[in-house]
Amino acid sequence: MAGTIVLEFPSEYKFLNIVDLVTNEVIENLCVEHQAANEIAISVIEACTNAIEHGNRECCDENVRLVFSCKDDRICIEVEDCGKGFDYECFLKNMPDPTDIEHLRGRGIFIMKNMMDSLEFEMQPNKGMKVRLEKTLKPKESGDVQKD
Amino acid sequence: MRLESREIDGVVILDLQGKLMGGPDAEAFKNAIHKLLEKGAKRIVVNLHNVDWINSTGMGILISGYTTMRRSGGDLRLLHVSDKIQSILYVTKLNLIFKCYSDEDEAVASFENG
Lengths: 148, 114
Description:
The complex is a heterodimer.
Chain A: E1 4-10, H1 16-30, H2 34-55, E2 63-71, E3 74-80, H3 88-93, H4 108-115, E4 118-124, E5 128-136
Antiparallel strand pairs in A: 1-2, 2-3, 3-5, 4-5
Helix pairs in contact in A: 1-2, 2-4
Chain B: E1 2-8, E2 11-20, H1 24-38, E3 43-54, H2 56-71, E4 75-79, H3 83-91, E5 100-101, H4 104-109
Helix pairs in contact in B: 1-2
């Protein structure tokens, strides 16, 4: 995949369908192996869910910007919201135990951290939070079938 | 998300269709669980066969249903978990909490074994 693909959408859950469609199309074009493809698709949805829910607080006047780019064998995904951000270093240090069923939320960052090679947060002054996800891609092997 | 229920041998099967991702889905699922509890249902199987994907908010919705059922002396189990949903369950270790089945008869029969 040469260049970048950009998708900008209002902060409503229904647009996650479009995010999923675009992500799957990008992944398909990159011929990524099945497990990695699933992990990228899940992580993109998590990042966009956080941007809608926590970043823009479901305000449909605020957009989420999603950027896919690929260099050599590495995919980079950036998700930007318009929110005030949060203390991600503190959150990472005190991340709730994902098996604790008393907590209904707080698993999104844990999922992204474990499914991607790199997860970074950047607070952009006067803009919002940017999340950057990266993963090194392995080519799809013959017989690697998408089951979903 | 669309939600329909049916009953087999005293076990309620909740057939979900679409995406489980928060927003109005949470309220719809919560209401369905509470209505079933009011009717005395204790054994619930959530059929995810037609669920394209789920996010962590959707996982929270399932956890909420699970804890509600367990606190009421019942149980909630999962049927037809896709690769993607399985990946989320594994990475969060929630596969240790949820009992998952790939066959409906097996899921229904599992309640006879506790």
